[in-house]
Amino acid sequence: MFQHNFIWGRCWTLSVIISVSAYPRPLSNIVFIMVDDMGWNDVSFHGSNQILTPNIDNLAYQGVILQQYYSEAICTPARTALLTGKYPMRLGMHGNPLFNSEDRGIPLTERLLPSYLKELGYSTHLVGKWHVGMSKEEYLPTSRGYDTHYGMRGGYIDYYTYNKVETWPNGRLMFGLDLFDNAIPQVNEDRYIVDALTDKVVKIIHHHNTSRPLFLHMTHNAPHAGNSGGALQPPLHSTVKHRHIANSDRRLYAEIVTQIDRSVGRIITALAEKFILHDTIIVFASDNGSPTVGSLRNWGVNLPFRGTKWTPWEGGVRVPAFVWHSSFTPRVWNGLMHITDWLPTLTAAAGGKLNKEIDGVNQWDAIVNDGDSKRNEVLVAVEDNASNMYAAYRAGDYKVIVGNVTGLNNNHYGAELLINKAQPPAYYPSLRSCEVAKIFDLMGIYLDQQHVEATRKAATIKQLDQVKDQNLCIPTPTRGCLFNVRQDPSESHDLWNRANKIVVLLTSRLRALWAMQTRRSPPNLRNESDPANFDYVWTPWIKSKNADDVTVWPLGGVNEEFNFSLNISQNKTMKKDTTKAVVINCDGTTGIKNFLCLLKSVF
Ligand SMILES: *[C@@H]1O[C@H](CO)[C@@H](O)[C@H](O)[C@H]1NC(C)=O
Ligand SMILES: *[C@@H]1O[C@H](CO)[C@@H](O)[C@H](O)[C@H]1NC(C)=O
Ligand SMILES: *[C@@H]1O[C@H](CO)[C@@H](O)[C@H](O)[C@H]1NC(C)=O
Ligand SMILES: *[C@@H]1O[C@H](CO)[C@@H](O)[C@H](O)[C@H]1NC(C)=O
Ligand SMILES: *[C@@H]1O[C@H](CO)[C@@H](O)[C@H](O)[C@H]1NC(C)=O
Ligand SMILES: *[C@@H]1O[C@H](CO)[C@@H](O)[C@H](O)[C@H]1NC(C)=O
Ligand SMILES: *[C@@H]1O[C@H](CO)[C@@H](O)[C@H](O)[C@H]1NC(C)=O
Ligand SMILES: [Ca+2]
User: Fold this and answer.
1) Start and end of every Sulfatase N-terminal domain (predicted)?
2) Which CATH entry fits the domain spanning 25-457: 3.40.720.10, 2.60.40.10, 3.40.1170.20, 3.40.47.10?
């Protein structure tokens, strides 16, 4: 299924063939790099020269770029989906991210990705942010499948002080250190956080015993906003560059992105020095879109997508992502993929098999062989909070959004941030001179400028549907919005009235999914968590004595049904409009044929 044809292939052809027939093949290492709140338009392989990410781009151009990749709109749900392979709404982990002082975590009945890989023989390490439970030891990474964890257990932190400052809805304030090396708080850490995390990753790689495969999960806190006292925190040891960028906040943001790109360069270099790069699967992905505006904004940009982090629009959930391995044929893959797919996909890449009901599907063969996606739908969002109930769902090329999105960021944001007051640095020289390019040169992987141009063009989002509504569609209590997001990735041409049958199909499926959710309690914020009780270190404050105590997560409280009284009866005045049929290539079909055509085009 997955051939090791690089370097080993050339020098060791004979012995590989013999050993493959006699023993199971060696397992590929996996390095999964997740960045926090980075938007679609914040990497240069998506077409913009404003913020150059040459190390990231080199990997992307030599790997498989995931062009239709959906994450979750918020941090905790995204990480839950990645680690469990399930839609977070099944586990009560959807919606608002965890407070550090909240008694919630991924239910302990769930088995997580590192645990599966560990069973397959992997040495498993998490470096960076966790954010899926920290109230008790049982929730921590080292209790859930990671051999080691260096990093943060909760949400965003300060890049310089490693403190998390938390303000409750009632105004109560708590603050303390959240940086650990396994159990030991790192009170004396004084490196810039991107460097501290990268140093640790490099160290793990250098000390790795290659008799076992490596699963190294790196989860940056960058480029998320820092604490409210300093939202954007580039390194203090260098001056701010990116002078071509007109907006000064965007300049600071660019500086942080550059640090992430350098970190990627250092990690690839370390893998090469260890002689394991050729057989390492590298995944790079953001956890959600950028909060261009609103609380915890970071001046990232999701354009041409609509919306921001914390919204069901494409800008919240379509994020930069790719996967690299030296054996891949580089390409842009247009298959539909969801963050839940990584668990079965990476397990399959490691030769394992899951016999378990999850939402994620194994995309490994499809990615490796440029096949069709194994998925034809994505549950984009379920928000059952009474103050803002909404849901979004994609099937085939169509995406439906229903409910109440009042108060969310429903527009297109950040065009002014993309303005350059001077010429940005030249792209190709930077691409050729970065660390990853140098390593690739040594490995005999050459970057062909024509290939780069073609790939970059294919990875740049194009708006194909030229019709633009005068007012962007916002769902109302009786009417949702429907978009063909392949034709209309900016979600600016609503088809709700034109494609009635698709609306009926999608909303009925969405209704069924909505019913599968586990309701959440209101956040259970606890005084005992106050780091002031623990020398100003965020520390697990619940001591579990018996098994029951740790396996039962109290749910309930919110109890809202899927109760969008949508009016999806046929709009008679539209009946003769053929736009609907043309859009979905069902023009000319009638009756049952038309219905089957619609079904086929949607599912
Ligand atoms: C690596 O692990 C193998 C198997 O456990 C062991 O025999 C070997 O000594 C280890 N190598 C190092 C350098 O620790
Ligand atoms: C929609 O949500 C907003 C914000 O939470 C709220 O003020 C408004 O009452 C809601 N509208 C309806 C119709 O539920
Ligand atoms: C619902 O939203 C309100 C207002 O944002 C918030 O106070 C509450 O905690 C939320 N409930 C849940 C279960 O997340
Ligand atoms: C939590 O602490 C606040 C302020 O210190 C206090 O007013 C409140 O009563 C405490 N709540 C509980 C449940 O102990
Ligand atoms: C559904 O919503 C309607 C009005 O929007 C309300 O009258 C009805 O009670 C709701 N039903 C449930 C089960 O919540
Ligand atoms: C039905 O379609 C017509 C023509 O596009 C439009 O003006 C009207 O608002 C639609 N009716 C409803 C209820 O959406
Ligand atoms: C539903 O929409 C149709 C046209 O699309 C309209 O004729 C009808 O009055 C609407 N019904 C309600 C309850 O709004
Ligand atoms: Ca995030």
Assistant:
1) 28-351
2) 3.40.720.10
